[in-house]
Amino acid sequence: MGVDTAGTADATDEYGIPIIPDPTDAAQRKRQAIIDSAVTEFLAAGYSAASMDAITSRSGVSKATIYKHFGSKERLFLAVIGGILPRTYAGLESCTSTIVEAPDLRAALIDLTTAWARILLRPDIMSLRRLVIGETERFPQLGQLWYRLSYDMINGPLAEAFAELDQLGRLDTPEPELAVQQLVAATLGAPQLMATFTPDADLGEAELAHQITSGVDLLLARYAR
Questions:
Q1: Could you give the angle at the alpha carbon of 76 between the alpha carbons of 70 and 78, nearest 5°?
Q2: Running DSSP on this structure, what letter comes out for residue 68?
Q3: Are 68 and 34 in contact (CB under 8 A)?
Q4: CA-CA distance, 171 to 194, in Å (whole number)?
Q5: Any residues with CB less than 8 A from the CB of 96 and at least 6 apart, and which?
Q6: Range of lowest pLDDT (4-13, 51-60, 77-86)
Q7: DSSP state for residue 12 in the 8-state scheme
Q8: Are 100 and 168 in contact (CB under 8 A)?
């Protein structure tokens, strides 16, 4: 038994990402095959050049079934890419929560930004980032979703941690959100920019560690009490 999308064809969430009804158990494997194939095709070709025929062939699911599940190529793109983004920063929330209690704040900040870098600089995440950047004009909701998720899962909690550290007298950060932005720029900004636009560049471990350590030291030189 397939998924009945009647009445939900235009349903979207607060970010404008299509709300696709959960499939039945019998349809789950087909749904996942479609998603996996669509992600591969969209990342390889972008939205405009992506072929629904290629997605159909790769997934082993009929084109009619794909449209039954997702409604259109546009909704398929938004649903599968929008579905990946929330998993981008998985696992980093717990790292942020340890900053306030850390006996060595410098080491904790280096560990956090290094963990963040390992996710952001992964080839699959870089491919996703380039895709979203390239399609932001057509699909601004994806850019908005990426920004909001980044803030909610990392920047926001870290700003709260900086505010608490300010109250504890360990940092002097009257503008904690600005301090977080400066930390990100000083540690991850250059490596992420290079990896985004020069995918063949080789950023070595030592160079990345030096960039992150220098950025953390720069932040603490400004804000540590």
A1: 125
A2: H
A3: no
A4: 31
A5: 112, 154, 157, 158, 161
A6: 4-13
A7: B
A8: yes
